[in-house]
Each structure stands twice: as C-alpha cells, then as structure tokens.
Amino acid sequence: MSQTGSIPTVSIYGIPFSKLTMKETVKVLQEAVLSKQTPHQVITANPIMVMAALENPAIMEVMQAAELIVPDGTGVVWAANYCGDPVAERVPGFELLHELLRVGENYRWGVYLLGSTPEVIQETAVRLQQQYPAIRIVGYRDGYFGPAEDEQVIASIREAAPDLLFVARGADTQEPWIHQHKDALQVPVTMGVGGSFDVISGKTKRAPMLFQKLRLEWFYRLLREPSRAGRMLALPKFAVKVMRDKENVTKVR
To answer: Which of 140, 138, 157 is nearest to 200 (CA)?
Structure first.
C-alpha cells in the first residue's frame, strides 16, 4: 500500500487508486472545499483509462499528478482484489457527483458545469438546481471550445468562483485540460464526469439497476452504443494483462 498525502492508495500499473469508501471520499473532498486548499483534481478512472495511460506517457503523467483517483470501473476493483491489495469499494463518478451536491446543499456551495452540448448543459443545470435547491449553479457552458478560448473560459469560471467544477469533455481532452489549468482555475475540487451530464439531462439512460448490480454497466452501454466496441476491447486486454502480470501490477513505479 502506498499513500497520496494522507489517502491510502494501491498502485495499479503506477496509477495510485484511492482505497477509501464513497463516504470517506466525500469527507476528504468536503474538507478540501471547506479549507480552500490547493485545487484538487479528481479522476474517476476505469481500465480503459489505465490502458490508455500505459500506451501514452502524457496521460500517465496527468493521472499520476491528480490529487485523487477513485476506482470507477469494476475492472479496477477486481484487479486490486486479484493482486492482493483490495480497495474498499467501487466509487462511481456519477454517484460521487450526486453525493458532493448533497453535502454541498448544507453549505450552499457554488457549482460550475462545463462541457457537452449547449442543450445538454442547459438542461443539466436546470435539473440539478431542481434536485438540489440549496446548491448555487454559478455558471455553465458547453464544451465546444478550443485552446484559443481557454483563457476566456478560465476567466469566466474564476469570476464565478465555484466550490465544485464538473467537466464533461472528450475522453482525450477532459483530464489533460483539468490538469493543465487547475492552478489557473483555482477551484477547490474539479472532477471529470464523462457522460454524466447526458444522463442527468435525460439525453441518455443510465443502465438499469440489474446491470448495475451485476456490474455490467459497461455491457449495457455497449448494447446501446455499438460504436464503443473499439474502446471496450481495452477491458478484456486489461484483464488478461493483469492476470499475466499479477506479481508486478501493484508495484509502485
């Protein structure tokens, strides 16, 4: 077991995954917001991201520099357990977002939403405000902007001064963008949320409870979006790699 600050972690191919429960994770992030500490980048990682990091040193660098990486994917939980250094439980990003908003209602935290399409982000803002009336949605904008507009986007977020920033951009840009700009953004907690806004806005459906309980959300997504098949090939590749590398998977690199 290794430590990231005071957070117990297990290294999966050099990526430090938190061993905290959902409840403990929320407490750590609550303290980060309340103490206005250095900006925290939260990555909700799965086997696809681990495989991408192994193939791309730039992605590995981003992940190793994050303040907190939670085991979002079932495959990560399995790998830690299989290699004898288990995490407490799966910490899905979708649920973590909602848990943070629940806690944030007690403090009237400000929240900024960034990413997805103009329609999706607007509907997400409306629905989250209805669901968590004591939260302050201090701003939102879609994810259709390039590097030339980064400065303007960062300035508008800083002006809004949120406590939480949720970012939903493409898999290849989401975490690197947060990593690159977290010091300039000066938000206590920034988290990449992938397709969460699509689900919250009603554009797509989350996997039915049966799929969630069987830990087959990835399979449900594949059934609905066959175009994801290429990316999903990383899952069996990851499992085979972990079984082959069992003795070395959790060695700190």
So the answer is: 140
3-class secondary-structure state, position 138: strand
Per-residue pLDDT of the chain (253 residues; tens, 9 = 90+): 444 558 999 999 999 999 999 999 999 999 999 998 789 999 999 999 999 999 999 999 999 999 999 999 899 999 999 999 999 999 999 999 999 999 999 999 999 999 999 999 999 999 999 999 999 999 999 999 999 999 999 999 999 999 999 999 987 899 999 999 999 999 999 999 998 999 999 887 767 777 777 666 766 666 676 766 666 677 889 999 999 999 999 987 6
d(CA 35, CA 163): 11
Largest Cα–Cα separation, the chain: 50
Instruction: Give the helix ranges, DSSP H, for the chain.
Output: 22-34, 47-55, 57-65, 74-82, 93-105, 118-131, 150-160, 174-185, 196-201, 209-213, 217-224, 229-232, 234-244
Residue 43: helix, strand or coil by DSSP?
strand
Q: Position of tokens 């609905």?
A: 224
Give 172: exposed, middle or buried? Use CB within 10 Å, 0-12, 13-18, 19+.
exposed
Element (H, E) at 169: none
Which residues, 6+ apart, have CB-to-CB distance to 28 below 8 Å? Answer: 7, 20, 68
DSSP three-state, residue 46: coil
Structure tokens at 12: 């999966």
Read off the tokens for 142. 């879609």
Radius of gyration of the chain (CA): 18
Question: How many of the other CB atoms lie within 10 Å of CB of 248?
Answer: 10
